[in-house]
Amino acid sequence: MAEPQTPSKTAPTAASTRTPVPDERPVHAAMQRKLTDAFAPITLTIRDESYKHSGHMGYMGDDAETHFVLTIVSERFEGLSRLDRQRAIHKALKDELATSIHALAIRASAPSDTKG
């Protein structure tokens, strides 16, 4: 019996620039899953800026996921101070912060923070 075929992760073109698919970005995927589970965010943006840190401490190559900017809006942040929001995010991402993430910029807000 033949093994099931898995789809190719990138389109096979010789001259194309390769863009990673989500399952090739394990740190990003883990962050997204954990933050979604912990905070049920209204808005969640995780931007990998590792490429900007070539030559800096913590840079581990072009494919490494080490430097991130996180923007998250969640009702679960209502009534929490900026510091408490960051502590909650750090708790949710403790494994990644201990092993993979070198730098994490956090913009965490509650829906009421943006109301006029």
The H-and-E topology, N to C, reads as HEEHHE
Distance between the termini: 63 Å
What structural class do you assign from the helix and strand content? alpha+beta
Overall residue-averaged pLDDT value: 79
Beta content: 15-25%
What would you report as the Rg, rounded to the nearest angstrom? 17 Å
Number of helices: 3
Strand order of the largest sheet: 1-2-3
Helix fraction?
A: 25-40%
What is the count of β-strands?
3
Largest sheet: 3 strands, mixed
User: What gross morphology would you assign?
Assistant: elongated
Unreliable spans are 1-22
Describe the structure.
There is one protein chain. The chain is an alpha+beta fold. The protein contains three helices and three strands, in the order αββααβ. The chain has helices spanning 26-39, 82-92, 94-99, and strands at residues 43-48, 67-73, 103-109. It has a three-stranded mixed sheet. The longest helix is centred in the N-terminal third of the chain and has 14 residues, at 26-39. The protein is elongated and about 40 Å long. 15% of the residues are buried.
In short:
With 116 residues, the protein is α+β, with helices and mostly antiparallel strands. It has three helices and three strands, in the order αββααβ.
Could you give the topology of this structure?
Elements: H1 26-39, E1 43-48, E2 67-73, H2 82-92, H3 94-99, E3 103-109
Parallel strand pairs: 2-3
Antiparallel strand pairs: 1-2
